[in-house]
Amino acid sequence: MKIKRDQVTGLVLIILGIVFAVLISQFKKPFTPEYPGPMLLPGIGVFGLIVCGAGIMVNGFRQKSEDKTFVTKAGWVRMLITFAILCVYIFAMKYLGFLIVTPFVLFGITTYFSAGSGVKTKLWVNIVFSVAVSLFIWFMYVKLFSMTLPTGILFE
Fold it and tell me: I need a labelling partner for 82 at 20 to 30 A (CA). Which of 21, 35, 92, 102 fits?
């Protein structure tokens, strides 16, 4: 029996879900009805990783056809560039904060992805999208959930 891409992908997602579950189980804040704590949102994500991983793995066992090329060399390069952007984002957010860094990163990523897809987007659309999504996320976390987002060491 030949191992298929979906089987490996599903297994990796399940393992990642289990690893993340172990990591978030170490949070000290207890889960209460008044304040669900920092475990709620990552816990939902962990559940999703495990369920989706299991579904992808089962689909890999059921699939009869041979796998086609998973990712081309250009695709791997795009993934590595995106990963590098996200690493820089995390580093920059530590110093400049969420509200300053996020719109720039969103703008960069959306422009980068749209350029590679052949879809023409206007500059102002990417700017409005980046700012609107950043403000929406900030509003949800800070105003609705009463949580904090990084303000940046330079602004404390």
Answer: 21
Do the beta carbons of residue 115 and residue 95 sit within 8 Å? no
The angle subtended at Cα 40 by Cα 85 and Cα 36, nearest 5°, is 135
Burial class (CB in 10 A: 0-12, 13-18, 19+), 120: exposed
In DSSP notation, 49-75 reads HHHHHHHHHHHHHH--SPP-----HHH
Q: Tell me: the pLDDT tens digits for 14-23?
A: 999 999 888 8
Q: Rounded to whole angstroms, how far apart are CA atoms 74 and 80?
A: 10
Residue 59 structure tokens: 């689909």
| Long-range contacts of 101-108, Cβ-Cβ distance < 8 Å, separation of 24 or more | 102/130, 102/133, 102/134, 102/137, 102/138, 103/130, 103/131, 103/134, 104/130, 106/130, 106/133, 106/134
pTM of the model: 0.61
Query: Tokens for 124?
Result: 């102002």
Q: Which residues contact 108 (CB under 8 A, 6 or more apart)?
A: 85
Q: Are 126 and 111 in contact (CB under 8 A)?
A: yes
Residue 101: enclosing H or E segment and its boundaries?
helix 98-117
Q: Which residues of the chain have pLDDT under 70?
A: 1-2, 29-38, 66-71, 116-117
